[in-house]
């Protein structure tokens, strides 16, 4: 599913840090080409299994399968169309510009050295998800790709015992179509993230109460937001969230059909 574009990946993840967010939040605006985005979008909507699961405020798919009630993943590979080109490209970006020849990637310290689970969420205008954390079931790295349309991710500090959640997010991150957002470290463990249930995202600018990664956005999108007075009327957006599930249960050959049926 390779595109014909020339990749312009960063030399290291350090070059993609969002300056005004916690120092463990990375943003790459053009991780997938328009052709790759279109092919992936089409595959998501035509793959026979698993079917969409409809929730009250969005719908989702879980690959290679949903987790068990004990937060365990049944051993099976991600389908090939979710692996290529995303996973090799993600793992090819070193965390630092290390000239010693011993470079590491964002999943080098995870149990399986690569993501083994992907949640696909679809948000139509007015839909969202309440502030939440991903928790200890996953290795503390989240890599999220956006498709379809931009959307704002709201980030809140995790309340301490006895405290209530703040009424306003402490950071707002705009995710463009084709972008990759990586959260780890303090962003993963000390913050909650969510998407407001609104039909219009507002205050899309680089000033106070604006967007933390404004300087990293593409010129085309910034011009659109500025033309509309810092607003964006939402369209359908799909996210692909890749993680490494810590607990994996192997059921041997009896589950061999899981990976085969999803290719």
How is this fold's topology laid out?
Elements: E1 25-28, H1 34-44, E2 53-54, E3 59-63, E4 73-74, H2 80-83, H3 86-91, E5 117-123, E6 129-132, E7 141-147, E8 151-157, E9 171-175, E10 180-184, H4 185-189, E11 191-195, E12 200-201, H5 219-227, E13 232-233, E14 237-243, E15 248-249, H6 256-260
Parallel strand pairs: 4-15
Antiparallel strand pairs: 1-10, 2-3, 3-5, 5-14, 6-11, 7-10, 7-14, 8-9, 8-11, 12-13
Description:
This protein is an alpha+beta fold and 263 residues long. It is 15% helix and 25% strand. It has helices at residues 34-44, 80-83, 86-91, 185-189, 219-227, 256-260; strands at residues 25-28, 53-54, 59-63, 73-74, 117-123, 129-132, 141-147, 151-157, 171-175, 180-184, 191-195, 200-201, 232-233, 237-243, 248-249. The protein has a 7-stranded antiparallel sheet. A 4-stranded antiparallel sheet has the order 6-11-8-9. Strand 2 and strand 3 (59-63) form a beta hairpin. It starts with 24 loop residues before the first strand and ends with a helix.
């Amino acid at each position: 599913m390779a595109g014909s574009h020339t990749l312009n990946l960063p030399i290291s993840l350090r070059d993609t840090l969002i300056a005004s967010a916690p120092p463990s939040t990375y943003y790459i605006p053009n991780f997938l080409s328009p052709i790759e985005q279109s092919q992936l979008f089409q595959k998501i909507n035509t793959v026979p299994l698993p079917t969409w699961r409809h929730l009250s405020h969005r719908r989702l798919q879980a690959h290679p399968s949903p987790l068990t009630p004990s937060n365990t993943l049944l051993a099976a590979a991600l389908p090939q169309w979710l692996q290529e080109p995303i996973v090799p490209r993600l793992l090819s970006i070193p965390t630092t510009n290390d000239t010693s020849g011993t470079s590491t990637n964002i999943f080098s310290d995870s149990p399986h050295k690569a993501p083994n689970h992907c949640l696909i969420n679809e948000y139509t205008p007015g839909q969202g998800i309440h502030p939440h954390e991903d928790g200890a079931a996953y290795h503390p790295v989240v890599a999220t790709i956006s498709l379809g349309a931009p959307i704002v991710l709201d980030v809140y500090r995790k309340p301490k015992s006895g405290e209530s959640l703040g009424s306003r997010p402490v950071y707002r991150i705009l995710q463009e179509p084709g972008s990759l957002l990586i959260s780890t470290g303090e962003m993963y463990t000390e913050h909650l993230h969510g998407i407001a249930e609104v039909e219009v995202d507002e205050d899309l600018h680089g000033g106070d109460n604006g967007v933390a990664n404004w300087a990293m956005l593409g010129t085309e999108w910034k011009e659109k937001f500025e033309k509309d007075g810092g607003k964006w009327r939402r369209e359908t957006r799909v996210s692909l969230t890749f993680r490494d599930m810590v607990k994996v249960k192997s059921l041997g050959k009896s589950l061999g059909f899981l990976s085969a049926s999803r290719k």
